[in-house]
């Protein structure tokens, strides 16, 4: 077998069609590019799809996390218990409010927050939990719910995921945040949305994303601090069009994941994402593998790149990033599961239109690079 160089295979690529183009064009032609009719329409359709009461669309997943944390009352000096194995945005959003992200280690199989570790991290300053449905796996929430504190779910990687009872991630009544960057399950270019169990929080988030404007007041009256976290009607129209074909987008990702599982099965020592179990279903966002212990991860990524295959260290442990080390004094050894996983995991090319032969080429190249072909 050879790892011959072929056309470059990117890490991610959105799947956009004629319906998306038409929807965006229609907004451009309407002349109403923001705060128009597509905003409420997108919010309603998305909430409906998840099975949530309502939703507020915002300019990014990060903005959604920020406003959701504010909405549940996180502020100066509070602590928020969260996962160190996440995209850095989830912990950053806590810091925006001068609160402190308190990390707890993850479960080695699901890679989501270990509920016992999370409970052990609670202090009298703990104000909320911020579990992350990492790589689209539905994090275990019941033990956290039993502790009776607000929960903000980082569901930015978990569109399409569901629990054993069949209910979608995001439908449990907590504030849950989804994101629409082009590598996510569906895209609005940039964008995010907070789904909510009640209208009260929506009113606050709607106001704060729009400079703190009171919804029914004259437009220059601001009764609270706000931000500009609005999502344009152009983006909402794109979101509506993607949402209309979400089943197709998700099914294609699932097919690619299954093909990877088969293609990579023969590589010794490689750990694949945990399969769906106990009725829970992953919403496929990335396909990450854990390299065998002792393999040089950075050299592997470089060797794959030379074969035309994009891959990425995904994800680095947040507590070991230099900003977090300096600000909070974190050191290696604090969260051993996270650190082990973060040192070995790489994301492989993963998107709905990835072809069977490309998947096979990725698998073959990885085998060659690992000295197994
Ligand atoms: C994508 C992502 C976000 C936020 O995304 P934006 O780029 O701000 O839209 C937050 N958390 C996780 C885990 C993510 O993967």
In a few lines, what is going on in this structure?
The chain is an alpha/beta fold.
Poorly predicted sequence stretches spanning 5 or more consecutive residues: none
Based on secondary structure, the structural category is alpha/beta
Count of discrete alpha- or pi-helical segments spanning 4 or more residues: 13
Radius of gyration: 21 Å
**What is the percentage of strand-forming residues?**
5-15%
Strand order of the largest sheet: 1-7-6-5
Largest sheet: 4 strands, mixed
Helix content: 25-40%
Distance between the termini: 6 Å
CATH architecture group name of the largest domain = 3-Layer(aba) Sandwich
Give the strand tally.
Answer: 10
What string, H for helix and E for strand, traces the elements in order?
Answer: HHEHEHEHEHEEEHHHEHEHHEH
Query: What name is given to the CATH topology of the largest domain?
Result: Aspartate Aminotransferase, domain 2
Mean pLDDT: 96
CATH superfamily of the largest domain: Type I PLP-dependent aspartate aminotransferase-like (Major domain)
Q: Can you tell me the overall shape?
A: globular
Question: What hetero molecules are bound to the protein chains?
Answer: pyridoxal-5'-phosphate
What top-tier CATH class of the largest domain fits best?
Alpha Beta
Structurally, how many domains make up the residues?
Answer: 2
Describe the model.
With about 375 residues, the chain is of the alpha/beta class. The protein folds into two domains: about 230 residues, Aspartate Aminotransferase, domain 2, CATH 3.40.640; about 120 residues, Aspartate Aminotransferase, domain 1. The protein has 13 helices and ten strands. The strands form three sheets. It has a four-stranded mixed sheet, sandwiched between helices. Strands 3-2-4 form a three-stranded parallel sheet, covered by helices on one side. It has a three-stranded antiparallel sheet with strand order 8-10-9. Helix 4 links the parallel strand 2 and strand 3. Helix 3 packs across helix 4. The N and C termini lie close together (about 5 Å). Bound molecules: pyridoxal-5'-phosphate (PLP). The site of pyridoxal-5'-phosphate has 14 residues, from helix 3 and helix 4.
């Amino acid at each position: 077998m050879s790892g011959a160089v072929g056309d470059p295979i990117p890490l991610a690529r959105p799947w956009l069609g004629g319906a998306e183009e038409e929807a965006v064009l229609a907004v451009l032609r309407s002349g109403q590019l923001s705060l128009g009719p597509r905003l409420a329409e997108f919010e309603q359709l998305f909430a409906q799809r998840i099975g949530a009461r309502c939703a507020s669309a915002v300019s990014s997943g990060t903005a959604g996390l920020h406003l959701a944390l504010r909405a549940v009352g996180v502020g100066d000096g509070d602590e928020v218990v969260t996962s160190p194995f996440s995209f850095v945005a989830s912990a950053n959003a806590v810091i925006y409010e001068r609160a402190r992200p308190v990390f707890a280690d993850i479960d080695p199989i699901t890679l989501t927050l270990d509920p016992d570790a999370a409970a052990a991290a609670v202090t009298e300053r703990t104000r909320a939990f911020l579990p992350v449905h990492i790589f689209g796996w539905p994090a275990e929430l019941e033990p956290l719910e039993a502790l009776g504190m607000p929960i903000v779910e980082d569901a930015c990687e978990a569109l399409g995921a569901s629990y054993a009872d069949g209910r979608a991630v995001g439908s449990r009544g907590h504030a849950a945040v989804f994101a629409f960057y082009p590598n996510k399950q569906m895209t609005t270019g940039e964008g995010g949305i907070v789904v909510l169990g009640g209208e009260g929080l929506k009113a606050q988030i709607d106001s704060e994303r729009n400079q703190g404007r009171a919804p029914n007041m004259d437009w220059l009256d601001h009764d609270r601090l706000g931000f500009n976290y609005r999502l344009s009607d152009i983006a909402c129209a794109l979101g509506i069009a993607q949402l209309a074909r979400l089943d197709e987008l998700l099914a294609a990702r699932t097919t690619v994941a299954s093909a990877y599982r088969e293609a990579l099965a023969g590589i010794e020592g490689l750990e694949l994402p945990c399969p769906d179990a106990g009725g829970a279903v992953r919403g496929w966002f990335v396909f990450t593998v854990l390299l065998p212990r002792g393999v040089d991860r950075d050299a592997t990524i470089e060797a794959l790149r030379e074969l035309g295959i994009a891959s990425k260290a995904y994800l680095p442990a947040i507590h070991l990033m230099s900003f977090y080390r300096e600000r909070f004094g974190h050191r290696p050894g604090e969260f051993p599961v996270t650190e082990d996983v973060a040192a070995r995991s790489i994301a492989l090319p993963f998107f709905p239109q990835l072809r069977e032969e490309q998947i096979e080429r990725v698998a073959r190249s990885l085998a060659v690079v690992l000295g197994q072909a």
